[in-house]
Prior knowledge:
- It contains 20 helices and no strands.
- By secondary structure, the chain is mainly α.
- The protein has a single domain, classed as Growth Hormone, Chain: A, CATH 1.20.1250.
- The protein starts with a helix and ends with a helix.
Amino acid sequence: xxxxxxxxxxxxxxxxxxxxxxxxxxxxxxxxxxxxxxxxxxxxxxxxxxxxxxxxxxxxxxxxxxxxxxxxxxxxxxxxxxxxxxxxxxxxxxxxxxxxxxxxxxxxxxxxxxxxxxxxxxxxxxxxxxxxxxxxxxxxxxxxxxxxxxxxxxxxxxxxxxxxxxxxxxxxxxxxxxxxxxxxxxxxxxxxxxxxxxxxxxxxxxxxxxxxxxxxxxxxxxxxxxxxxxxxxxxxxxxxxxxxxxxxxxxxxxxxxxxxxxxxxxxxxxxxxxxxxxxxxxxxxxxxxxxxxxxxxxxxxxxxxxxxxxxxxxxxxxxxxxxxxxxxxxxxxxxxxxxxxxxxxxxxxxxxxxxxxxxxxxxxxxxxxxxxxxxxxxxxxxxxxxxxxxxxxxxxxxxxxxxxxxxxxx
Length: 410
């Protein structure tokens, strides 16, 4: 038993691994959602219709699978740490460059490149964090990890409230260069994944065979993640614009509402993530989706700012409550030898197939009105997603690291 305790990663090392994944996803989300608060500003600055700025969001989402494949393959063959550091530096550099874009064409190319970086961060960071997390805390820490996305959105709202009026739109992107410093944190404090050391494929051909055998389940995971992306981006990306256009709410108030509903998102991710350790991943996700479905009419048709804000808080508590379970759920279902690739690839292929969501909702708005477009589309998404979740499988509490191997190495 003494040898086992020596070889097992220290609690501080586990903390640093989870913290690195959380902080990386937080800053990645911040860099993405900056554009959500700049749709009108960027359209005026570049002299293009608002739909072109919305299209830049689609381009970012569509390029994410490339990053998942590139950085996921590197993570499964060469370890989690170095690809994660390279990813952090890459997307931070591109984000800063967006602040120097002289025209729309340049901006669009940069946002597409940013999508590659964004696509690589989640898979590598999530595999490192979940492989390091204690099994009994995996659901809770999964919620903490995924809540980084909502906290990034919250920070973008804070920047829209404070940075944008004081220093202008370019500074919003320049702040996004800060994640590059996180690479130093990973370099100094985060150990390599013990699970990766134990299960690393001996060759590219062995790795390819593992992925080939997993393809049927990968198809299910991609379908699941496609609907999850329709849910999250369909309820988040255009909601600030909806509040401004449909209800005439001032941009400063919109930013405050966004701050509020992202607090709900963080609470939901942590609560339902922890709940998943008690009632299972699928049933916990179904409960979170049920909450979102119940508040949907108030979220889309609330008559006052207070009603809309409260409904948005509960909506995102449910949406991100379901999302808080995803890091643990996908990593538990993934094969050991391809855990760096499979969860991230399923996640990002889902966003590829769901990438037109903003354009679809924006087009529906012109036909049936903004509120109805959001309500009808997201209502259908929630019902289909709940069925898909309950029909699937789970491997809650699956062991990633062999205790026998730890004892032998000790």
